[in-house]
Design a protein that fits this description.
Oligomer: single chain
CATH superfamily: P-loop containing nucleotide triphosphate hydrolases
CATH topology: Rossmann fold
Number of helices: 9
Largest sheet: 5 strands, parallel
Number of strands: 5
């Protein structure tokens, strides 16, 4: 089993790439979904989050209100660090389990782990290589403001909480630029998949 971490800043297009990989038949483990699992009321992660941030982050149905929690942590980097110290280790353990489960699926040779904070959370240590999707800031802003119905100010706060594109690139084995058409992006992914299989199968 060969594991690949798929990452990129908000709006770079990593989720688009993840969906395409799934269409191509590759398993993709989504860190956001694992985050939802980590927040379940029966977990120690949930208990720690409520203890640190209070009942204001608990929704009426007893689950974590991610919007309320986000409004706290994205306004204060210290609060964001506190949250990350709780949640990141929990997600890492869930990811390890999912990767191990994928390795037991017959015919499955490559599995992807999609995570925006793959590098920051040091989850790159549990994969064999890292693929990073990058895009010009102007394109990121245009995509996210429309997609998330947000403002540039709010988006910039979220971007400031992430590592720089240069740092992402430095930590990557493969970098894919997403500033053209969706067809161009898919072609770039196809080329990287061909190269990947040559590498892991001992080709030239």
């Amino acid at each position: 089993m060969y594991t690949i971490g798929l990452t990129g800043s908000i709006g770079a297009g990593k989720s688009t790439v993840a969906r395409y990989l799934e269409l191509r038949g590759y398993p993709v483990i989504d860190a956001d979904r694992l985050g939802h699992e980590a927040y379940r009321p029966d977990t120690s992660c949930y208990q720690q989050v409520v203890r640190v941030f209070g009942n204001e982050v608990v929704a009426a149905d007893g689950t974590i209100d991610r919007k309320a929690l986000g409004s706290i942590v994205f306004a204060d980097l210290n609060q964001l660090r506190r949250l990350n110290e709780i949640v990141w280790p929990a997600i890492k353990q869930l990811a390890i389990v999912r990767l191990q489960q994928a390795s037991g699926v017959q015919g499955c040779r490559v599995v992807f782990f999609e995570a925006a904070v793959l590098v920051e959370a040091e989850w790159h240590t549990i994969v064999d290589e890292v693929w990073t999707i990058i895009a010009d800031t102007s394109n990121v802003v245009q995509r996210v403001v429309v997609r998330d119905n947000t403002t540039e100010l709010r988006l910039n706060k979220r971007l400031m909480a992430q590592i720089s594109t240069d740092e992402r690139v430095r930590r990557s084995n493969v970098v894919i630029k997403n500033d053209a058409s969706i067809e161009d992006l898919y072609r770039a992914i196809d080329q990287q998949l061909i190269s990947l299989h040559h590498r892991i199968e001992g080709g030239d």
